[in-house]
Every structure is written in structure tokens, then in C-alpha cells.
Amino acid sequence: MTAPKLIPLAIGLFAVGVLAIIAVFVLFATGHSDLPVWLNVAATYLPAIGLGLGIIAVIRKARQKKS
């Protein structure tokens, strides 16, 4: 994938991950203690994957402009 195609993917993954984090906090605050595994996995890994892809995309884009 090229850098311009990675940036929207990174933003989307990060946003979904942040929404999952908010959902975990809201559900925990309302008294739910046994949350689904997929929600915990999404809240744990999606923001990190999105941030990592965003950093990779920005570095690749910066290197393309130099050459």
C-alpha cells in the first residue's frame, strides 16, 4: 500500500479503537463487568495498530517527497 492509501486506513482503525475504549468505559460505568472479548481486543489493539500505520504512512510520505 502506498502512503496516501494508508492514512485513511490508519485514521479509521484509530477512530474505531477510540470508540471501543469509550464503549468499555461507558459499559463499565453502568455496571457491566463481563464485557465481550472482541470489545476488549478492539479497545486494546486497534488504536495502537492505527497509530503505528499512521506513523509508517507519514514517514513513507516524507521520504517520497525528498526524492
UniProtKB/TrEMBL annotation:
Record's protein name: Uncharacterized protein
Transmembrane segments: 7-31, 37-59
Keyword list, A-Z: Membrane, Transmembrane, Transmembrane helix
Organism per entry: Lentzea alba
